[in-house]
Amino acid sequence: MSNNNTPDIIYTKVDEAPELASASFLPIIQKFAAAAGVSVGTKDISLAGRILATFPEYLSEVQRQSDDLAELGKLVKTPEANVIKLPNISASVPQLVAAVKELQSQGFGLPDYPETPSTDAEKVIRAKYDTIKGSAVNPVLREGNSDRRAAKAVKSYAQNNPHRMGKWTADSKTRVSAMEGGDFFSNEKSATLPTEATAKIVLETATGETVLKEGLSYPAGTVVDATFMSAAALDRFLAAEIDSTKADGTLFSLHMKATMMKVSDPIIFGHAVKVFLAPVFDIFGAEMADLGVNPNSGMGDLLARVKDQPAIMAAIDACMKKRPPLYMVDSDKGITNLHVPSDVIIDASMPALIRAGGKGWGPDGSESDANCVIPDNSYAPVYDESVKFFKENGALNPATAGTVQNIGLMAQKAEEYGSHPTTFEMPAAGTVRMILDDGTVLHEHKVEEGDIWRSASTRKAPIEDWVNLAISRQRSEGFEAIFWLDADRAHDAELIKYVTPILEAQGVADKFQIMAPRAATRASLETITKGENSIAITGNVLRDYLTDLFPILELATSAKMLSIVKLMQGGGLFETGAGGSAPKHVQQLMEQNHLRWDSLGEFCALGESLQFLADARSNEKARVLGQAVDAATQGILDDNRSPSRKVGEPDNRDSHYWFARYWAEALAAQTDDAELAAHFAPIATALASNETAILSELATAQGPAVDLGGYYHGDAAKTAAVMRPSATLNAIIG
Fold first, then answer.
1. Beta strands per DSSP E along 219-320
2. Between 17 and which of 207, 352, 582, 704 could a Cys-Cys bridge form, CB atoms 3.0 to 4.6 Å apart?
3. Where are the beta strands (DSSP E) in 96-150?
4. What gap in Å lies between CA 212 and CA 106, rounded to an integer?
């Protein structure tokens, strides 16, 4: 156990499917870890927990909650950090509003989310809520760069048990569309600061100067970027793509990241809603505004607000008949691509569509080709090249495919476009300037009203750490290694100025290639198609995208990835894959008491966390525990104990039973620690001898709808009753 009050391992409390799984799995972890003198505690970074921590002044003493995210933010800057981080909700506005309403219904006196704040008090409340939106957690915790890869056992299983892939044909009409100008990519400017500096961002208009942000501080060597997207160019692009999609007879599908890119992408999403329903907004725009319609909140919110307005509803119906069919989130329920900004997340939606042979679900419940609209051209070429590659070569064969690992630059909020307070929707036409404290104008852009301007920065230390991590990974693997950097893009050109000298100084320049994302995509797909392996060394956003794209093609899911963050101060952050928080899994559990969430990512992260603890603290019992986790994970794969998708078949809870059994059996069988072997021998025997009773109790629980006491803020006792329905297993685990 650690010498202070911090547990040896922190297991995060999160949201939706992974949090439900924790109710079953965490008691097992704590039971087994305690036998090795390892303490496992929790910190609440869930959406509901973060909301409650942000508004203590509105709550009673007993309702108040500590700011666990802030505490973890401090911990990850220390060598003692050992955090297992599960996926949390990156909240869109509709999700945030829904969570607030649920908490209010449970007796928490929280203020409403002010969609259009008018008073100073409302502006303060809105500013506090805005800190919770989007990717508010990851930038705080990621004080290191990312090392993501498929564990060898997971990759081997995928090759031996290949998942179904959709068929690609050369005549597929599926395509990717992106702006050819006026977007973030084409307007980007970048500079590396030679000395430490502070800066402010101002908008100069015909009526004077407005300070958008001041007090920005950058250490020497920071790469500072600025860019904007033209609202007029965006609208022209969207209108043209709607028309061309109609002519092609394909589905119109918009692929955004309205969660992580919490400022920019909801605005872009709103433009798409407004352009798609342009005839309706032309006639009824003012009336809908009076009803509280905000296109950024999506078509679902719009329809809820105008449902009692027959003229508007008729106009919407007439407009929809003239538009191309929309890519559907749930065709049975009529939920379209444009209903909720957080429903279609590009890093999950595009790989799923590509895996399906370029097909998406249409409103008629059948699969169709689609126009995949990705307005900004920064990373659209990755998906465009993937689509073109598979049209030419057919679908990837998971049985023979190699793997793409990823080394991602993300430490200290590197490249955090859209997730920080330096993104603005322009209130008027003018010139945006980024001005250093000595009066130097670092960047400037002429903008029009409604344009989206944003800045991001990347510090020197994380860049150097990222390059060195890539060198270490390539040295250990010997694979092809590619820096996905475009020499013709402003930001990437600044990074290359760091990368090349480091590679040359360490004598490894011949081991690496530098390629623009489109070329790197083609090269990587060619490599894995041959059954060989590649290391993609990327910036933050591409890290996010590629660690879904390749795993979904290779493994069928990104939730099974090893995701290790080597914290720059010496600690470890172990993320449980990149599988999201799986809201559809929660819906199935609530309706059928079946949770199909696969905890393989948690198993992998647990094993890495225990091995890290063993190395950091010279704790040999933790090492034995971690080695046994690897054996248990192998058993889950070898014996096909992962959850099924269908009610009445084994689910997440069954997989936890099998994991506990395999873990106990491995500990009982090992010879490195006799004390642990003796401790776990009777547990292993009990788990094995009670197999029939335990599996029967788990199976009997399935079928009926269940009450969790809440979606965002469930009742702990009710959730435990649902997720731990086997009295026999509970008696063994405690």
1. 223-229, 251-254
2. 582
3. 144-150
4. 38
Closest CA relative to residue 591, chosen from 700, 705, 699: 705
pLDDT at position 393:
97
Q: Give the residue among 69, 74, 25, 75 at the shortest CA–CA distance from 46.
A: 69
Q: Please tell me the predicted confidence (pLDDT) of residue 582.
A: 84
* 338 vs 329: CA distance, rounded Å: 9
Q: At what angle do helices 68-75 and 47-54 cross, to 10 degrees?
A: 100
The pLDDT value given to residue 520:
98
* Type of residue at 75: L
CB–CB of 38/619 below 8 Å? yes
Q: How many residues does the chain have?
A: 734
Which residues are paired to 433 by β-bridges?
Answer: 202, 444
Tally of CB atoms within 10 A around 368 = 20
Q: Report the C-alpha gap between 16 and 328 in whole angstroms.
A: 22
Q: Tell me which residue of 302, 293, 260, 298 sits closest to 133, measured CA to CA.
A: 260
pLDDT for 418 = 61
pTM of structure: 0.87
Closest by Cα among 84, 93, 105 to 42: 84
Distance (Å, whole) CA 677 – CA 699: 31
Low-confidence ranges of the chain (pLDDT < 70): 1-4, 417-420, 577-580
So what's the pLDDT on residue 139?
A: 85
Instruction: For the beta carbon of residue 172, count every other beta carbon within 10 angstroms.
Output: 17
Residue 160: burial class (beta carbons within 10 Å; 0-12, 13-18, 19+): exposed
Q: Which residues of 589-602 are buried (b: 16+ CB within 10 A; e: fewer)?
A: bbebbbbbbbbbbb
**Residues 91, 502: Cα–Cα separation, whole Å:** 38
| Cβ burial 239-250 (10 Å sphere, 16+ → b, else e) | eebbeebeebeb
C-alpha angle with apex 127: 122 to 133, nearest 5 degrees? 125
Residue 138, pLDDT score: 85
